[in-house]
Amino acid sequence: MAIRFLRTEGDRVLRKQAMVVKRFDTALAKLLDDMAESMYHYEGVGLAAPQVGISKQIIVVDAAESGLIELVNPEIVGASGEEIDIEGCLSVPHTFGEVSRAAKVTVVGQDRYGQKLEIEAEGLLARALQHEIDHLRGVLFVDRALRILPQETDATSEMDE
């Protein structure tokens, strides 16, 4: 496993539509392992492959109560409710903003072996899944922010993605 270099706002890979993963092999497993190690190293709640320079539909999330979740080709197939909360992002350092997200989501995708998964989530896990799936579409949280908080604010986020 290895810690991957994080791409930050301004890097073109963060604004591209990520490609669908078709090969479930040892290279994918290594990337998932590296992404998880990198997420923990940088103290994030989630990480999407574009954030480490790989334009593929792969995310990892660990929202405490969930444990590590790996999703390949994830898609939100159901959403309900609305919650506004503060978000941050490893790819947009030192920036926080208020973002409206669905309160509950259903996400489908595949695991590292290509097996289908379905996850029903609420709270921080739902927010993190939506945030990371946005990365796969080239969307950053600042694009969705209702307002960006002033940098001198001592805002601490539940999610510094």
Q: Describe it for me?
A:
It is built from three helices and nine strands, in the order αβββββββααββ. The longest helix has 16 residues. Helices cover 21% and strands 36% of the residues. The radius of gyration is 15 Å and the shape is globular. The protein has 161 residues and is an alpha+beta fold. The strands form two sheets. Strands 1-2-3-6-7 form a five-stranded antiparallel sheet. Strands 8-5-4-9 form a four-stranded mixed sheet. The chain has one domain: Alpha-Beta Complex (Peptide Deformylase), CATH 3.90.45.10.
CATH class: Alpha Beta
Kindly report the name of the CATH homologous superfamily: Peptide deformylase
Number of strands: 9
User: How many domain units?
Assistant: 1
Radius of gyration, rounded? 15 Å
Strand content: 35-45%
Q: Mean pLDDT, nearest integer?
A: 94
Largest pleated sheet: 5 strands, antiparallel
> How many angstroms does the end-to-end distance come to?
20 Å
Secondary structure category: alpha+beta
Per CATH, the architecture is Alpha-Beta Complex
Order of the strands making up the biggest sheet = 1-2-3-6-7
From the 3D structure, determine the CATH topology.
Peptide Deformylase
So what's the overall shape? globular
Helical element count? 3
Concise structural overview:
With 161 residues, this protein is of the alpha+beta class.
Question: What labels would you give this structure?
Answer:
161 residues, Peptide Deformylase, globular, alpha+beta
Helix and strand layout, with pairings?
Elements: H1 26-41, E1 46-48, E2 58-62, E3 68-80, E4 83-89, E5 92-101, E6 104-110, E7 116-122, H2 123-136, H3 141-144, E8 145-148, E9 159-160
